[in-house]
Design brief:
By secondary structure, this protein is α/β, with parallel strands linked by helices. It contains nine helices and eleven strands. It is globular, with a radius of gyration of 17 Å. The structure holds 3-hydroxy-5-(hydroxymethyl)-2-methylisonicotinaldehyde. 3-hydroxy-5-(hydroxymethyl)-2-methylisonicotinaldehyde binds next to strand 1 and helix 7.
Length: 276
């Protein structure tokens, strides 16, 4: 298998076990060369800390991309996560997606909302811009909340398979040929992934573990991209990413002091093994 090089674009939250501080180790554990473009530097993530220091790197993104373009550098995959504003979404579309190698993969995790609410600092304009970026992707990885916001669907805690099928069809209509919707469960003790590809829908169910944990979406997305780069089909990549995420959640359960993130580090070896 050829050695793959990917670019991931998302923030560095210095404390908080999410975005780049998750993506880089997870992708490395998957055996993929990982180039990074930090979209912003934050003292912590925005999910529960107050007075966050935020350094917006929007101005630097086009200049960095331009340098890579002049050097002839391109990537087997471009994977975007949390982007710090609409300007960064535009830069991702205009300057970064063109750096995808022929036949390469564009993966968009529209990391902007959870539990029925947008993350702090985002608004409808941001959602509109993210909808456009999703339309340029090969794979999108929204959670249920993001899926609803991207399609103008009222968020429901109680839903059935028909409702999920409609949501997937609306997400597919945004333009990406593969939609991986996370956090879908049809029973109280169940969660999982609903995947829509070439018009076909498949489910990958998981036991629902207690609590909600910050950063699980980033872990899932990074493992999904890493597994895809190792030649796994989207269904297999989603299964591996879901198993890995569940393992990380198990490591974090029963430690209230670790509310801000997820203990993924001890599970990296297991992820490498799942891929072999
Ligand atoms: O895990 C998503 C995420 C990434 N980056 C920042 C965040 C969040 C979620 O709140 O605030 C800065």
């Amino acid at each position: 298998m050829a050695y793959k090089r990917i670019l991931t674009v998302q923030d560095i939250s210095c404390v908080g076990q999410c975005s780049l501080t998750v993506a880089l180790p997870v992708l490395s554990a998957c055996g993929v060369e990982t180039c990074v473009l930090p979209s912003a530097v934050l003292s912590t993530h925005t999910g529960g800390f107050s007075g966050v220091h935020f350094r917006d790197l929007s101005e630097d993104i086009p200049a960095i991309a331009d340098h890579w373009r002049r050097e002839g550098i391109n990537f087997d995959a471009v994977y975007t996560g949390y982007l710090g504003g609409t300007r960064q979404i535009e830069s991702a579309e205009e300057a970064l997606l063109p750096l995808t190698a022929p036949g390469g993969l564009v993966v968009v995790d529209p990391a902007m909302a959870d539990n029925g609410k947008l993350y702090s600092g985002f608004d409808e304009t941001y959602v509109d811009a993210m909808r456009g970026l999703c339309g340029r992707a090969d794979v999108i990885l929204p959670n249920l909340t993001e899926g609803c916001m991207l399609t103008g669907t009222p968020f429901e805690e109680a839903y059935d398979e028909t409702w999920i099928r409609h949501l997937l069809k609306k997400l597919e209509a945004l333009g990406a040929p593969c939609v991986v919707l996370t956090g879908v469960g049809f029973a109280p003790n169940q969660t999982g992934v609903a995947l829509c590809r070439d018009g076909e829908i498949r489910y990958c169910a998981q036991e629902k573990l207690g609590g909600t944990f910050h950063g699980t979406g980033d872990l899932f997305a990074s493992a999904f991209v890493g597994a895809s780069m190792q030649g796994k089909c989207p269904e297999e990549a989603a299964r591996i990413a879901a198993d890995f995420t569940a393992l990380c959640i198990r490591n974090t359960l029963e430690e209230p002091a670790h509310w801000y993130g997820i203990k993924f580090e001890p599970a990296l070896g297991a992820l490498t093994q799942m891929l072999n």
